[in-house]
Amino acid sequence: MRIRDVRARLIELPYPRPFRPSWAPEGGHRSMSAVIVEVETEDGIVGVSGGDMGHGTGPILLEAIRTWLRPQLVGLDIFETQGIANRLRYVAEYVFPRPWVVGVAVWDAVGKACGQPLHRLWGGDPSPVRAYASFGEVRGAQQRAEDALRVVEEGFTGIKLRVHADTIAEDVAQVAAVREAVGPDVALMVDANQAAASWRYRPDGTRMIWDFDRALATARELADLDVAWLEEPLGRHDYRSLRELTAASPIPIAGGEHNRGFGHLVHLLEDDCFNIYQPDANESEEIGALRMFGMMAAARQRKVIPHAWATGLGVAGNLQLCASLPNCEWLEYPYDPPVIVPDVFHVMLTRPLLPDASGNVPLPEGPGIGVELDHAAMEPLTVQQV
Ligand SMILES: [Mg+2]
């Protein structure tokens, strides 16, 4: 079953108001850019996937697909996933660092060819996956407490907050207000988004960088608030400090969402940098290889909870990965009303991926990643295609 074509389009999803994510608050984002990939076989099966393309990189991925990936993949057997993954690694090394979304589309085609959802092909658990509402903005403590109560009423049993205040006291005040509002039974996660050297954290565009002492002091404060994990407290290549922090912290330390490639992930694991590893099927490595990494982490009593700040299509691939791993307890579900909502993020799907009343996301019953593209909805949002 050979690959006949690899297509991609860049879409822009307009936000109802400017969004100021904690990792880039200056200016405000007016839309989400996403690349939709379609891998078609000679039998007419079309595997799909979607990756989010911040920093204006969407056109670069499209060009990488047009000039490198399509010529490399056309003619290959869709079931030769390891050979295909090696082609993606070549592109990641020399052309564009995150072509992995194409690998998800390949696996979607494999699932469709077999008539099975990926989590079934991979021997996973078909139960709905517990989802946490992943907030993106830093808002005032009172506002966040109200926001948190609302999503708990909708069914969520976990919430991830972002912290970027100048002082630990301000960061902790936000988390404390939310804990007070939602009570002891809701899981709270805290993301510091400190891993990228390029990100700005203040509205004026300057940086506020944590050092080891701030990270550990914050972790100790958050332990008193029963926080489930502290995410990306230090630079992503600061392996020694991450290891020491993980060893010293009273709460789990999470990270790795943008440490790309199998070798980097294994390096993190061998250095014992985190309690929880967060590779993303669209952004970190080929999704089949991430399953193997998940097993390696499980053998060391470490968890893998994929990063999935993505559109509904991007979440769909990671959802299959979550369900296939024995050491994954949560699905990241981007949800920060009134901007980050399914009406915006899931418009490319004929049926949005929605949590049930218990805050769990059911696995779609369809084969592959289990979703269908709404071509009519994508047409007016498309800005480029190859
Ligand atoms: Mg994160």
From TrEMBL:
| A GO BP entry | carbohydrate catabolic process
Keywords, sorted A to Z = Magnesium, Metal-binding
Q: Which residues form the Mandelate racemase/muconate lactonizing enzyme C-terminal domain?
A: 141-252
Q: Which cofactor does it need?
A: Mg(2+)
Q: Provide a Gene Ontology MF annotation, just one.
A: hydro-lyase activity
Pfam family name, one: MR_MLE_N
Keyword match Oxidoreductase: no
InterPro entries associated with the record:
Enolase-like_C_sf, Enolase-like_N, Enolase_C-like, Mandelate_racemase_C, Mandelate_racemase_N_dom, RHMD-like
**PANTHER family the record matches:** ENOLASE SUPERFAMILY, MANDELATE RACEMASE (PTHR13794), MITOCHONDRIAL ENOLASE SUPERFAMILY MEMBER 1 (PTHR13794:SF58)
Descriptive protein name: Mandelate racemase/muconate lactonizing enzyme C-terminal domain-containing protein
